[in-house]
Amino acid sequence: MKIFTFFLYANLFSFNVTNLYLQEYYQNNSLPVIDGKINPSEWKNAKVFTDFYIFLPKSDKKDYDSTIVYVKQSKDALYFAFKFFPKEKVISQSLVRDRSSDEENEFFIFLDLENKNQNGYFFAFNFIGNQRDMLIYNQKNVSQEWDWIWENKSTIYREATATEPGYIETEVKIPVDKIQNKNTEQIGINFTLFAYRPDGTYYFYSIVPNNELMSLKKTYKMNITPFDERLNININATPFLMSNKFNDSTYKANGGGELSLSLDKHKLKATYNTDESTLEADPYSFSFYNRPIYLEEKRLFFSKDLDIYRSQINLFYTRAIENINYGFNYTYRSSKFKAGAIFVEDDPESSGNTRQFFTTRPVFYGNNFNFGGFFLHSNKKADNYKENILSFDGLYYFPSNPLRFAGQYATNFNGNAYKLVAAYQNNNNSGPYGSFSYNKVDDKFKATTSFNPNVGLVNNYDEISATGGYAWIIERPLFSGISINTGYYRSRALNDNFKMQESIYMNFYTKITGTLSFNGYTEYNQPNDFDEFGNITKRNNYINEFSLRYLTGNNAFFAGYMFGPYYTTYIKNPYFGGNIILGDKIALNGSVNFYDMYDIKRTIINARMDFRILKQFYLRSFFRKDTYSQNALLNTMLQYEFFAGSNIYLVMNLEGKKLQYVRRYFKIGYEFNF
């Protein structure tokens, strides 16, 4: 007992001494207020970066736009400031969080808080306040579903003229106290900055030489003062309340929420009556060959941890789980080992016929490899149906070249599935790239939560895919970017060798000028089909698509034409659309598609408006019309965004041929931190 007491007091003394040191350090370093105006007194003693390297296209020149970056830290956050002197246009097009265009100026912040150059976080902003964030794993893979609460604010003091550069100040605050597994002495950081030249061509520059776009392979190693962990206990509660009314029916209310508890490297989340109303419809997509559309996970209960469950075979497609009654989600994260376990009960048909899922996945990360396992148990009591899935997967990548090899084996103890992948990864700059994969699924293998790329067909199929290409990014006014790739793909049923697809294809893209780009795609596909007598036959499908995109100021317009023989018809699909930005308040985008196939002519119109009334207060409206089905949709929403994941919504949906069906929503969800 005396020995235990001695160690307890020793630890408390050490903890208090560290806290006193940190308190003195932070008191002597005033912290910035994120108002988009760089006050010299607030950024005193900050780390300053003024030297950059142009890496895309690769150049040894130092003619990038003058830029100064400041970095400071507090006990629980990192602060960044940017002084940007653009010599040319600055394009800002996005007012919707986590969305961006290829043309707009954005600054990227990369954080490798483990300091391993393997896993980290990506933050991007444009100069009208829009944010994007993603989680990065295995150096280059990203989880776009991940969201974080952070601040950014820009002030545009002047725009560039023929005789004087523009000037923009931006301040950013990224809290890191709730991020697990932080290095206490040194972290990796990087900034990737995007700008235009006078001839309209673009370039990327960074604080590290020979950088690779969207990668953690190379970072600047910055020494830090240890963040104040305070035993690192964090509690978050996110309750929500929603009511809705359909036409003349009475209002119905619904409520639920989530609770999160994190301690050091451990995190436990609980959910009750999980919010399924994303209030933004999944995107409409036309799919050839009955291919399924992969839908993004938007529920925060899942989305922030999906990197742990990523593997070559998608055995845990969370959108297959619907109408969750309750659930628990546990994660553990360290620099070498990550693990997760999830239990949920759902009622997909709202009939009381519930399903239960339990899954767990450990992943070990070595220097140049990782190895993981996966187990899933599902149970549908009413149907007396149970599943048990066991899987192992691994990835190896060479430290000195972009070769990667990966494989996965899965079994439900009646049938098996496996996938092998070899890839020569593009570094996102320029050069060759290619990949080969083989995937096989037995007829007795089934997993309720797996994503089957051959929807509507039973298992017992295999797939072969081989693709390769080359990208050129060259510093010149015409044809500064060129990419060409070609490939082969075959998917067939193994019981009768019925080929769902067997295609060769080629894609060509070029940036003709700084404002005009062209894309062309050609595919020759010979799938099997059934003739009018039920006999297997072979079709000759030949699909072509060509499109142009033109940029003028902050606005972009596109037009294209897809055509060719497809099974027993001939497709004609001209389309056009555009994105228009009015100041920093209003974004308009829309498209019109004309389809002529199977003797059916239809026009599909999509239009969207985003109006930022105040800093965090938005009016959003979306309209869709299909002239063949005569159905129309008008969705109008008032949204007040406290921060990512915490919003108040007032929504009105009108549907039907004459928009006669009216549904009204009110929803509030807010995250409380303790």
Care to describe what's here?
There is one protein chain. Among the domains are: 1-27; 31-229, Immunoglobulin-like (Sandwich), CATH 2.60.40.1190. It has 3 helices and 40 strands. The strands form 4 sheets. It has a 24-stranded antiparallel beta barrel. The model is unreliable at 1-27 (pLDDT under 50).
The helicity comes to under 10%
Query: Roughly what fraction of the amino acids lie in strands?
Result: over 45%
Separation of the first and last Cα atoms: 33 Å
Q: Within the CATH hierarchy, at the fold level, what is the topology of the domain at 31-229?
A: Immunoglobulin-like
Q: For the report, how would you describe the main beta sheet?
A: 24 strands, antiparallel, barrel
- DSSP helical segment count: 3
Q: Strand tally, please?
A: 40
Mean pLDDT: 87
Which CATH architecture of the domain at 31-229 is right? Sandwich
Uncertain segments: 1-27
What is the CATH first-level class name of the domain at 31-229? Answer: Mainly Beta
Radius of gyration: 27 Å
- Helix/strand/pairing class, anyone? mainly beta
Shape field: globular
Brief synopsis:
This protein is mostly beta strands. It contains three helices and 40 strands. The relative contact order is 0.09.
List the helices and strands and how they pair.
Layout: H1 2-27, E1 47-49, E2 53-56, E3 66-73, E4 77-85, E5 107-112, E6 120-125, E7 131-137, E8 141-143, E9 151-158, E10 167-175, E11 186-196, E12 202-206, E13 220-223, E14 233-246, E15 252-263, E16 266-272, H2 300-303, H3 306-309, E17 324-333, E18 337-346, E19 355-365, E20 369-380, E21 385-397, E22 403-411, E23 416-424, E24 431-441, E25 461-473, E26 481-493, E27 499-511, E28 516-525, E29 528-530, E30 536-538, E31 541-552, E32 555-566, E33 569-582, E34 586-597, E35 600-614, E36 617-626, E37 632-643, E38 646-656, E39 661-669, E40 672-673
Antiparallel strand pairs: 1-3, 2-12, 3-4, 4-10, 5-6, 5-11, 6-7, 7-8, 9-10, 11-12, 11-13, 14-15, 14-39, 14-40, 15-16, 16-17, 17-18, 18-19, 19-20, 20-21, 21-22, 22-23, 23-24, 24-25, 25-26, 26-27, 27-28, 28-31, 29-30, 31-32, 32-33, 33-34, 34-35, 35-36, 36-37, 37-38, 38-39
